[in-house]
Design a protein that fits this description.
The protein is α+β, with helices and mostly antiparallel strands. Helices cover 26% and strands 22% of the residues. The protein is globular.
Length: 213
């Protein structure tokens, strides 16, 4: 990796409204329906909230990027509605396909003209670092156990996180399902560990103006 260091100070958003309760939600010791902040999502009831919260890692990444770029950040459920209409989610009964990258990227670029969303189906680690050094943020597909750097994930991909920084030895990610105080914000993932989680797919999010921080 290039001998450079970049860390964008990106606000953190979990895919659940109560980031401090993530360990209980993923362990199943607390129902997502019992999230005390569920109404912030814009859901009609706790059941609707619970159905979508487990599926909105990509929306959490988008909301983090919007906040960082100085754009208005909508609640989760209006974004779910828009992305279903845009065919970035295909909702059929109890199943949801998505997040589907190309309609998602088209929606983002159309909705926020100052943002360019570019889909990459073979995104090398060096390209992630280059994009970050150039001022962009990168949504990447990883296995969810990246939150603990599990030694043997069962697959690659399936969960979206936001790459926010890079240096010679590690990538930094904001993880919508990360653990509080450990792997939620700017979580350090050594480059040597990334390949066992990373599906080499992603979306580069660029803004026409440098964020004022």
């Amino acid at each position: 990796m290039p001998d450079r260091s970049t860390l964008h100070q990106v606000p953190y958003y979990s895919q659940w409204e109560s980031p401090d309760l993530v360990p209980e939600f993923i362990a199943g010791t607390r129902s997502v329906r019992d999230d005390p902040l569920w109404q912030k999502s814009g859901a009609a009831d706790p059941d609707e909230y619970a159905f979508w919260a487990d599926r909105t890692c990509g929306i959490a990444c988008l909301r983090m990027a919007l906040d960082y770029f100085g754009e208005q950040v909508p609640p989760v459920m209006p974004l779910v509605t828009d992305l279903c209409e845009a065919k970035a989610y295909v909702h059929d009964g109890d199943t949801v396909a998505g997040l589907i990258y190309r309609p998602f990227a088209a929606y983002v670029t159309r909705r926020w003209p100052a943002i360019t969303a570019t889909v990459h189906t073979d995104l090398a680690e060096t390209q992630i670092a280059d994009a970050l050094h150039a001022g962009s943020l990168v949504v990447i597909s990883v296995h969810k156990t990246i939150r603990t750097l599990a030694p043997h994930p069962i697959s690659r991909g399936g969960h979206l996180v936001l790459a926010v920084g890079a240096d010679k030895t590690a990538l930094r990610i904001n993880n919508p399902s990360g653990l509080p105080g450990h792997s939620q914000r700017a979580h350090r993932v050594p480059w040597a560990d990334l390949p066992r989680f990373y599906a080499r797919r992603g979306i580069v999010l660029s803004h026409t103006e440098e964020p004022v921080r």
